[in-house]
Design goal:
five-stranded parallel beta sheet, FAD/NAD(P)-binding domain, alpha/beta, 3 domains
Length: 450
Amino acid sequence: MKVIIIGGGAGGLSTASNIRKYDAKAKITVITRDKHVAYSPCAIPYVLSGDVKNFNDIIMHQPEEYLDRNITVLTEAEVLEVEKEQNKIKYILMNDKKRHERELEYDRLVIATGGAPFIPPVKGANLKGVFTIHTIDDGFKIKKWANKSQTAVVVGAGLIGLETAYGLKKMGLEVVVGELVSQIVPRLLDPDMARLVQNYLEKEGIRVILGNSIEQVMGTHKVEGVQIGNEIIKADLVIMATGIRPETHLAEYIGCELGKWAIKVNEKMETSIPGIYAVGDCVEVTDAITGHPTQSPLGSTAVRQAKIAAKNIAGQFAQAKPVLNATVAKIGELEFGAVGLTKTVAIYNGIFVISGKKRALTKARYYPGAKRIDVKMVCNLQGRIIGCQIVAEERVAERVDTMALAIAKKVTCNELVNMEFSYAPPVSMVIDPIILAAENACEKLKEIGE
């Protein structure tokens, strides 16, 4: 069996590795436009901040290492055409000045084209000193430019924007973050929880401007400033962290059915065209709470999808599940994460909810080094937990994972209150903060019932 995978990110390479696990004889070829493969884009801001020493540290494998598993990886290559009737693709090597077209045949094709940065159509967006932050090459360029810069504006207050802003601040730059909507990380946190993260950023010296769009990037040949709303902000570096759009052009050209957000696939990760699969950021998924189509631009989702696609390509059966989009982030000393729906998103989807909140500590009150932790639990009116948000300086990820399991199993706040949790003074309170938040939710439900 011949398998071609278009895209060398987490979804594409994981699909290749998993196919090899289930099929020792398959001929596997991965084609990617990138020069580097098997690196973590999520780690780029941490190289800027100095938490990771250099960009080479976030590259886990070189293309030639895949040859040891009989997987061919073609870097700096671009697919020009897919002839689905003949089961073959045409591609070029991008450093080939003569641009000779080459062909490869396939029995199964996997589209793992990921996403592409969205750049607002504003004046000056093409000036020198304006960058997106999506690939490791972007990271190299940003760090080089930042080393000769003093002021930076990050446009977009999603996770990558905030992590990059902090990284640039650690490099010694004055940093301003601009966000179109009235809060930071709007897809992850409700406004009250987002404010806790914003307070930390501002304490670290990062200015945050909310509720205003970028009007223009100012300068002649390179960046000199940015206009956000009516305000002119001096800057010699601009990061456009304004979101990623699914890269679906090739799939659309082939004739794969697209959904509201991206490529439609079935539970086997197969597109509307038999024998053609898709995984990663270019794929539309189903929200586990609403049942509606949504996006899940997370490396963890791409890796899970890759396993499903690989098993089905290798003749086994596996089924993809709806997503909860469990997410965690760390900026400086602050961790925050969420899973399921925020209260805002639930209401938008017509779900009536209540929320339980609790501010507690990560350790026993008397134990040295105890940190504040804020937990928000979102429940529907039947008491079923449909979302959770947590902000603290430690121990967030494991609690988000616990809540992901609870939500997936349709646990109610009353059931959670009566579950058994471990305790030791150096690592927890005798009653875990998520239990305390669930108790608060139960009290509110009881008030509604009365």
